[in-house]
Amino acid sequence: MATTPYLTGQFLLAMPGIGDPRFDQAVIAICAHDDNGALGIGIGAAIDGLGLHDVLEQLEIDPGEAPDAPVHFGGPVEPRRGFILHSNDWSGADTVDVGGRWSLSATIDVLREIAEGKGPSRWVVALGYAGWGEGQLDEEMTRHGWFNVTGDEALLYDTPAEKRWSKGFAEAGIDPSLLANSAGTA
């Protein structure tokens, strides 16, 4: 049994000094968290020089009505695999409801629907994911590393990637500039 509450549908904000440069100022949307482990999609950083139209072109999909939105660094695991976090007004064969807050899809169908203007009304595209094995995230939550906040739709859809980390802390009443990058001992 997990020692911390299951975090599905919440965001993890990386604390300063987390110890892994891939997660500096990371914002992870937790999409699954149970006794077997956890899976999250990074939404705190866009991949420089890569937009949705580039991805659609590689997949031979006409961009149609889709805006050339940024593609996010979803995490270090399987960085060539795509994921779409999206509103609950669309569902495909592989769509997973994430705590009633948003949905996760990972097939080409959702991209085709977005390009045709028939997909979800709100969405975020990412490549890769962050994953934790059995009990790993629970253990990490007991150390200085991650801070969890409610899965706010405005943070997911209305906030630019580069502002999500600071806004997540601000919404929790924390000034991130006052956070220490190490934990003390007594």
From TrEMBL:
Family annotation (InterPro entries): AlgH-like (IPR003774)
Pfam families the record matches: DUF179 (PF02622)
Coiled coil: none
GO CC entries: cytosol
UniProt-listed SUPFAM superfamilies: VC0467-like
Family the UniProt entry places it in: Belongs to the UPF0301 (AlgH) family.
Name the UniProt record assigns to this protein: UPF0301 protein J7S20_04545
